Amino acid sequence: MRNYQKCILLYAFFCVYIISSYGLPGLGLGYTNILDGGPVRPYPGFYLQQWMQYYTTQRFLNNEGKPLGGFPSPRLRKVVMATELIYQFDYEFGLGGMPGVMVVLPVVLYSKIEKNLFGFESSGSGVGNLGLGTYIQWPAIIHNGRPLFIHRLELDMAIPLGKNKLPEKVINPNNTFFYWGPDWSATLFLSEKWSLSWSLNYVWNAKNEKIDVKIGDAFYCNYSLAYEAYPKLYIGAVGYALQQIHNNKEFGITVKDTKERVFGTGPGIVYFFPNDFDFFSYLYLENGVRNRTQGTNFILRLVKHF
Fold first, then answer.
1. Whole-angstrom distance, CA of residue 280 vs CA of residue 188
2. What's the pTM?
3. CA separation (Å) from 96 to 75, 133, 169, 198?
4. 207 and 20 Cβ atoms separated by less than 8 Å
5. What is the pLDDT of residues 166-206, one digit of tens each?
6. Which residue has better confidence, 208 or 300?
7. pLDDT at 210
8. Closest by alpha carbon to 203, among 188, 218, 224, 223?
9. C-beta separation of 304 from 48 below 8 A
10. Residue 259: what are its φ and ψ, rounded to 5°?
């Protein structure tokens, strides 16, 4: 019986580390949501965005949505801060769209996992991947004197410059590989009070040279249905969905049943303060998970326009 348990533990460790079925980078799941197509960035100038994320889980799940190896999962807690600087140029480009550029740097402030049978360890706090991007923000389409639709098209990438201690530590702030992808964010104003927003993202991942693994491409979407309960105060239902499209490859060989999946749903609130200062808050409870952790995700977002 002891030998059987050892085999299960080795298999679970093999899945998480060697095959990297938990290998997708730190994507922006739930980071933007209510009124995502605008009006946060409809005007030229500098924007400073600050995120704070708290994530906790006690469920490490396999490709069937069951605990790894059939054993209880350890508790993982993580606090992340991300700072983004955006500049939107003061000229029109393509049907009235205004181009812009951005740079974002995430920092893991706290990362701790309980001692566990799998031997999973965290390298702790540190700097993550440096994010760069460019976009075009189109102005709102006005119908009968009110906004009807506003949207933005982005191209984002991330460069591995941060902390990573593979293979000694399997939980790290940095992913050690380059990734990029397009993003289309939009808001449809259903009425004077109701709005529907979404952000569609595709992610292409380069090979992780450190462990000779290529994580499969993925698609994810942030979405929300919001109601303006009071002038400049919005409340709504928010969510995100992630589906890895291709299986991972190890040493050039495709490894089946390594696609990741997760759904997150919960409440959200937004308030637009005077002087171009905006506050966003989202809470997500994850479900429908495959090949990744299932937990609780809380995000605060502050935006200042200069």
1. 19
2. 0.91
3. 49, 20, 49, 21
4. no
5. 888 888 998 889 999 999 999 999 999 999 999 999 999 99
6. 300
7. 79
8. 218
9. yes
10. -75, 135
The DSSP secondary-structure symbol of 18 reads: I
Task: State residue 212 phi and psi, 5-degree precision.
Answer: 55, 50
- Position 144: which residue type? N
In the block, residue with structure tokens 């992913």: 175
SS3 (DSSP) at 144: coil
Mean pLDDT computed over 276-303: 96
Residue 27, amino acid: L
The residue whose two tokens read 């098209």 is 153
Kindly list the strands in the beta sheet with 249-250, ordered across the sheet, starting from the edge strand earlier in the chain: 207-208, 213-214, 249-250, 253-254
Under a CB-based contact definition with an 8 Å cutoff, are residues 76 and 112 in contact?
A: yes
Which of left, alpha, beta for 88 (phi over 0: left; psi -120 to 50: alpha)?
beta
Q: Evaluate if residue 17 carries a pLDDT over 90.
A: no
Residue 140 pLDDT:
92
pLDDT score recorded for residue 118: 85
Q: Range of 8's domain?
A: 2-305
Give me 37's structure tokens: 């197509």
CA contacts within 13 A on the Cβ side of 102:
25
What's the whole-number mean pLDDT along residues 208-226?
93
Structure tokens at 270: 């937004």
Please give the tally of structural domains in the chain: 1
Token output for 2: 């002891």
Look-up of token digits 């890895």: 244
Q: What is the pLDDT of residue 6?
A: 36
Other C-beta atoms lying within 10 Å of the C-beta of residue 287: 11
For the stretch 66-124, pLDDT in tens is 998 888 999 999 999 999 999 999 888 778 899 999 999 999 999 999 999 888 899 99
As a whole number, mean pLDDT of residues 261-277 equals: 95
CB-hemisphere CA count at 13 Å for 240? 30
CATH number at residue 262: 2.40.160.40
Q: Which of 293, 242, 289 is nearest to 60 (CA)?
A: 293
The CA-atom distances, in angstroms, between 12 and each of 16, 69, 193, 259 are 6, 6, 49, 15
